[in-house]
Write a structure and sequence with these properties.
Helix content: 10-25%
Largest sheet: 5 strands, mixed
Strand content: 25-35%
Structural class: alpha+beta
Radius of gyration: 19 Å
Shape: globular
Length: about 325
Amino acid sequence: MVVFIMLFSISTVESLSFEQQEDVTITYQDFYDGLSPYGTWIEYPGYGHVWNPNVGGDFRPYLTNGYWDYTNEGWMWNSNYNWGWAPFHYGRWMNDSAYGWLWVPGYEWSPAWVTWGDVDDYYAWAPITPFVNVGISFSSYRPGSIYWNVVGRNHIYDRNINNRALPRTEINNYVNKITIINNYNRTPNHNHYYSRGPEVKDVERYTKQNIRPVAIQNSKRFDQVSRNEKTSRVYRPIVQHEQPRTYRRIATPMVQPNEATSREAQSREAQSREAQSREAQSREATINHAQQEQRVRALPEFRAPQNTFRSGERVQRAPSSRAPSSNRRRN
């Protein structure tokens, strides 16, 4: 089986096309074009097009370059990355031991697609992977240690939370003892479950802070997000589906996905067993980020036919690898 990785090169104007969405509706094409300057797109067996971010070092989803904020819809991840508005609120993350962290786009927005837990004096959370059925509560989902982030309870509200997390070698000592926090909400559009996270009263007790929830309000433009003491304006458009322009292909993924039909049929217990089997190699492997980046760059590049994309909405431009120059922060 072969996987396509898409390297998108688009102009600044095209990358900022989200601004023009007055009806707050976008397509997968906007994901593809908007994220392409910041990473590589791959067509991955069983999951379609997935995205590998161009981030150096020990990147960890929902830990690196961001922080947790408490809202009326639960604990929300605020990312400081320019591209953070999409991969931390739509879709799922998975870790391939050969290629690193891969984001699978999704239709539904939530404050964060993670599972929450606690152990001893720590809070823990982990991205939920694409095979997890969010049509039901996923309290039995138990990912491998590479997925978990663990932080002292008194530091969960810190803005520099990345500096407070336990190193990967220590997390291994806690994974099998984590108790899942069963505190779920449902999304308004597709009625999917997501975890609200720990009770704010408990967090207040551990952090010795008075935490007031902020109310999430919709922003029609990604560059007009903001937060004050009472509200947090977030860009969370309704997503429709399309296809990327340029991609690469992987012959055999290190993570073997199931067919969509079997994923839907899985029980929560089966999901847990599959997670343990699927992630066994990642748990044991020593991560070499440089080798992962080299493997991604070495994949063959492909271009999709022009007639697979929307017509008349964008002017074709010469390829450019330059990312948009913007200091604006997007959620």
